[in-house]
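I am still getting used to backbone structure tokens and would like to learn alongside you. To get us started, please write out a protein record for me. Start from the sequence, derive the backbone structure tokens from it, and show both lines together. Once you have written the record down, we can walk along the chain together:
***
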Amino acid sequence: MKPFALFALPLLALAGCATVSPEARLRSGLVDAGLPPRVAGCMAERMADRLSIDQLRRLQSIASLKDRDVGQMTVEEFLFRVRGFRDVELIEVTTRAALGCAISG
């Protein structure tokens, strides 16, 4: 049993590193939706732990609606699209993140 444990422990540690965090996926989705990478990173950091999986998937769907190049969507346009989901919590969390990132620069 001991040799197995010595072999399995490093594999488990590597497996933990291989999973992509919700924040990283959200950041990538926001960039894919057209937000500038700096803004997307700031917003993802503030939003990832406050939204459900379903809400995160809805945000990800905005990227499929994108009609511009990466970095070309303004935060105002993004918030307009988020409001279309009519999810009060999603709108609140996204708006607060956008406002906080705008204030912090």
Summary: The first helix runs from residue 2 to 18. The chain has a mean pLDDT of 81.
